Amino acid sequence: MRSLIPTLAIAGLGCFATSFAETPVERDVTTLIEEYNNKFRELAPRLAAAKTDADRAAVRADAPRAEHYAPRLMKIVEANPADPGAVRALCWLATQANGTPESGKAVELIGTRYAGSAGVWEAAQQLYRTPRPQAEPVLRAIIKANTHEQDRCAAMQALATVLFNASENVNTPAGKADRDEAKQLFQDIVANYPQTTVNGFKPADQSAAVLFEMENLAIGCAVPEIEGKDVNGDKFKLSDYRGKNVLIVFWGSWCHSCHYFLPQLRELAAKLKDQPFTIVGVNSDILPDLKKFLAEETVPWRNFADESSTGPISAVWNIRNWPTLYVIDAQGVIRAKNPSVSTVEEMIRAIGAKP
């Protein structure tokens, strides 16, 4: 599922190795994590130099394995449960050692013995990626027990994300309850933690963007206007297509999933050529790359040139995953979000130009 929370973790490096170790236990934990991280760093030039798929596979086979480090870190935790280094080790295990027995145990410990400890934000902010039955009780425990601003704020945002993701396109009382609680949590973050930073980002800013999405980009909402320029620099608006059903596609040539969708969308456009329907793209490539791509590939719909994954249109629409699709009916009402291409076809044929 898509993410509402930015992360700086790359190739398993995480964000744990930059803190200064103040105790011998913290130094031991940092040494292990740095060893793991450094082995990943050493692979980068080898991977860049690899010439064949076999060469690249051989390099990847040398990547450090979390299961080789997890037991060593858990042993440190068990021997030094009251040391701040234990929290750091547990956070690494919870977020970087997925699939190991130690990772599951770490999440459980964070939600019980360590729920009120300083530093659990490093795990809390990533727990939205964990299945809800495992993540939700841990996040609720941190929110209840933790008085540290950064930790509590991170847990609130992660829980709000879990609930928001679970509620999307779910038209049931349970879905509404999840959505209402997520909205309240995001509002609380904006009101009570406006200057708090977690991993270099302000949850209040991110929460405000999600609140805009919840209030203006949900199914049944009147679609916000989009104004911008196409690849030729000509201005146009989304409302220029009022009277037609519109599929808005946020995409980029850098996005592997988008390449999978483009042929399907071309086929969809051909199938629905007799319908009051059009596709409108919002492209996130820098302009030279977009022009080059359009010269080489067939993209038979007009595109707003947003010129970045954080461009002005994508930012307002709070886009976090590419591609993202919206179906807008002829009256400018949002009818669906991220439907399958086959569902789009069925929907367009069903609604036609009718309200």
Number of strands: 7
Would you tell me which CATH topology of the largest domain applies?
Answer: Serine Threonine Protein Phosphatase 5, Tetratricopeptide repeat
CATH architecture of the largest domain: Alpha Horseshoe
Outline: globular
Strand percent estimate: 5-15%
Low-confidence stretches: 6-19
Structure write-up:
The protein has 355 residues and is an alpha/beta fold. The chain has two domains: 193 residues, Serine Threonine Protein Phosphatase 5, Tetratricopeptide repeat, CATH 1.25.40; 125 residues, Glutaredoxin (3-Layer(aba) Sandwich), CATH 3.40.30.10. It contains 14 helices and seven strands. The strands form two sheets. Strands 5-4-3-6-7 form a five-stranded mixed β-sheet, covered by helices on one side. It has a two-stranded antiparallel sheet with strand order 1-2. Helix 1 runs parallel beside helix 4 and helix 8 packs antiparallel against helix 9. It is globular, with a radius of gyration of 23 Å. The two termini are 31 Å apart.
Would you spell out the secondary-structure blueprint of this structure?
Elements: H1 24-49, H2 53-61, H3 66-79, H4 84-96, H5 101-111, H6 121-124, H7 132-145, H8 149-167, H9 173-192, H10 203-216, E1 227-229, E2 235-237, E3 245-251, H11 256-271, E4 277-283, H12 287-296, E5 302-305, H13 312-316, E6 324-328, E7 334-337, H14 341-351
Parallel strand pairs: 3-4, 4-5
Antiparallel strand pairs: 1-2, 3-6, 6-7
Helix pairs in contact: 1-3, 1-4, 3-4, 4-5, 5-7, 7-8, 8-9, 9-10
